[in-house]
Amino acid sequence: RLMNYNKALLTYGSQSTQSNTWSLKGRLNFAKAYTFNLEQKFINNNMLTPAFSNQNYALSTLNTIPSITYTNATKWRLTLGYNYQTTKNAIQYGGERMNSNTLNIDGKYNLVQNTSINAQVSLSNISYTGDASSTVSYTILQGLLPGKNYQWTINFTKRLLNNIEINFQYQGRKPGDTKIINIGTASVRAIL
User: Of 4, 55, 120, 127, which sits 20 to 30 A from 78 (CA to CA)?
Assistant: First the structure.
């Protein structure tokens, strides 16, 4: 169980958020290289901003995430997963509802001891009842849009010497009927 409560005093008044997450995880290893994981989450998120009633919500979320992973020693790993999520907002705050079905594919390949490539692809189909352009909908939809959503990431990491690591990352997404959004980052990190 994870509980968070925050209250902030801002220029327009107070804003309070509360999150309560119950999580249940199970794992089954079979045939040495295969692992089946199942995670079940029950989440309640609340936000109260007296100055802006259109930002208030009381969300109840049910999330079921089964996945199967194949691991080949330390060379590579491939995970195929599914994520079913349903989220409801309380009637007094708008009554919005979201159902999401997501297929996830995640692969990691270790080239040598100090280099790895990680790739992820997610395909989501989201149905939503309510105003998809509201402030609350952005929270419920987690930045995506109703309809088909595609997300992909490629990450290249290399450790130089023993304590310097470089990382190149490319992220792309296509939410709903909008254009493709591309983001690239590069970073250098010192490990002390």
Answer: 127
| Stated pTM of the model | 0.85
76 with 112: CB under 8 angstroms?
A: no
C-alpha 161/C-alpha 137 separation (Å) is: 46
83-128 pLDDT per residue, tens: 999 999 998 888 999 999 999 999 999 987 789 999 999 999 999 9
Question: CA angle at residue 39 from 85 to 183, to 5 degrees?
Answer: 60
Chain-centre distance of CA 75, in angstroms?
26
Decide: residue 154, CB within 10 A, 0-12 exposed, 13-18 middle, 19+ buried: middle
In the chain, the amino acid numbered 87 is T
Q: Within 10 A of 136 (CB to CB), how many other CB atoms are there?
A: 19
Q: Is residue 108 a contact partner of residue 117, using CB atoms and an 8 Å limit?
A: yes
Query: How far is 80 from 70, CA to CA, in rounded Å?
Result: 9
Note the residue count of the chain. 192
List, in order, residues 6 or more apart from 123 with CB less than 8 Å away.
Answer: 102, 103, 148, 149, 150
